[in-house]
């Protein structure tokens, strides 16, 4: 487990340093628990993880309103006055979250996030917790 976390930290660093203006990178479980982080302190990563759990739940509820598809959240982007927030599905019951400054190249960020998820998606999955239904 420790070796796997070290590998993930290295890959998160690669994403953060490969896209200028990236502030925080966090991997979280669907129930809002931080799994890994880069470029942020633990308290900030935990707050982002908790907020992301609610956001992915809202996105899934909205997705279920579309007549075609499975309603699963794949990507949420929020633009605020100070920058951008990205939340991407990254394996079974896992998500990749990135906070970036206003000058970030949004296309590059999306591409690098997709590349990271494709490379290590199976490492970003979390098993269901006892009693949790598998979606």
Automatic annotation (TrEMBL):
Under the heading InterPro entries, the entry gives: Mycobact_SerProt_Inhib_Rv3364c, Roadblock/LAMTOR2_dom
Ranges for domain Roadblock/LAMTOR2? 9-100
Pfam families (UniProt xref): Robl_LC7
What is this protein called in UniProt? Answer: Putative regulator of Ras-like GTPase activity (Roadblock/LC7/MglB family)
């Amino acid at each position: 487990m420790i070796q796997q976390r070290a590998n993930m930290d290295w890959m998160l660093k690669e994403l953060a340093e490969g896209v200028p203006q990236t502030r925080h990178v966090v991997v979280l479980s669907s129930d809002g628990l931080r799994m890994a982080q880069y470029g942020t302190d633990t308290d900030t990563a935990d707050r982002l993880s908790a907020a992301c759990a609610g956001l992915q739940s809202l996105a899934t509820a909205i997705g279920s309103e579309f007549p075609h598809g499975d309603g699963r959240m794949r990507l949420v982007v929020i633009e605020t006055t100070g920058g951008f927030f990205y939340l991407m599905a990254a394996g079974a019951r896992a998500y990749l979250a990135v906070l970036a400054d206003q000058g970030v190249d949004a296309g590059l960020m999306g591409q690098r996030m997709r590349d990271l998820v494709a490379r290590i998606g199976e490492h970003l999955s979390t098993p269901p917790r006892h009693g949790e239904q598998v979606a």
